Amino acid sequence: MEDYPKTEATFKQKLSIFLVFTKKGRKFISDLKYTGNLLTDYNLTASRGRYQHIHFNTGEEKRQGLREVEEVLHGVQFKGRDPFRGALTLEYLVIRSNEASADVMEMLNGTLAMLYYDLHVTPKVVSEELVRNLGLTLVGVFGVTLVLIGDLQVSIWVFSCVLFTLIGIAGSMRFAGLTIELMSSVLLILSVGLAIDYSTHIAHKFLATPGDSKDDRVRITLAEIGPPVFNGGFTTMMAFVFCLWSENYLFQITLKVIWFSVIYGLYHGLVYLPVMLSWFGPQAFVDSLHSTKNSPAQNDLNLSLMEAPETPTARMTS
C-alpha cells in the first residue's frame, strides 16, 4: 500500500494515467462522469462500479443479497454532500416492482432517500394472491367448460390439460430464471385462457364426431380440427417473436410465458388429450350423427375402408 495516494491531487493524477494510458483502465471511462479534461484538470461528479452476486437459488436469497448491498452503501461515509448513492440491476428492478407502490423517493436534508415496503410482506402477499386468483380462474374455467361441452368426463380431461399446462409453465419459468412477481403472476393467469382453447376444440370435436370406435373418432378429430388448432397456436407464438430482440424485462418475460403456455397447451391438446379420449372417451352425441356423418374426414375414412382389398377365402369342395 506504499503507492496508495495520500492526497486528492496524487489520486487524480494516478487515476488519469490509469484511465487514459492503460488498456485496462480505458474500459472504465464510461463508468465515470467528470468535468474538465482528464489530461489536465478535472473533477469527478459521479461514478459507478460493477459487481456480480454469487448464484442465488431462491427469491429470499436474492432479497437478502439486495439488503446486504444496501447496508454496505449506507455504511460508507463520503466527504461533503452525498446527493445520491444506490445499487441498480435488472434483478433489483424485478424485486422492487413487488415492493414500491407510489412515492419511493423524497428529499431529506439534501439527501435522496429510498422508501420501500417491507421486503417480506409484499412478496408474500403477491404469492398468496396468485394462488387464490389461479384457483378462482381454474374453477371458473371448469364451470364454463362443463356447460359448453356438456360432458363431465370430458370436462375433467380438459381441466387436467389446463392444470398440467400450468405446472409445465411454472417449472419452465424456474429454469428460465423467472421469479414470481406482479408481471409473471398476471401472465400465469392469462395462460389459463390460452391453455383451455386448444384442448376444448379437440374435446368438442371428439364428442360431435361419430365413428365405429374411439380410435376412428380421434383420427377424424385430429384430421379436421388438429391443423387449425396448431396454426392458431403457431400464429400466437409468431405474434410475440419480435420480443426476442428486446432487452426490456417486460417484453422478455411476456415472450417466455406466452411461448411456454402455447407449447404446453398444444402438446396437451394435440397429444395428451387425444390419447386419453381414445382410451376413456365417451360415446358421441346422438344429435350430431346426421350433421357430421358426411364430413370430409369421415368420407375419406369410409372411402379408404371401401377400397381395401377383400381377403380371399378358400372354398372347400367335396
UniProtKB/TrEMBL annotation:
GO cellular component: membrane
Protein name: Uncharacterized protein
Organism: Darwinula stevensoni
Keyword set, alphabetical order: Membrane, Transmembrane, Transmembrane helix
Gene3D superfamilies, alphabetized: Multidrug efflux transporter AcrB transmembrane domain (1.20.1640.10)
InterPro entries assigned: Patched_domain-protein
Keyword Manganese part of the UniProt annotation: no
Ranges that cross the membrane: 130-150, 156-175, 187-208, 228-245, 257-280
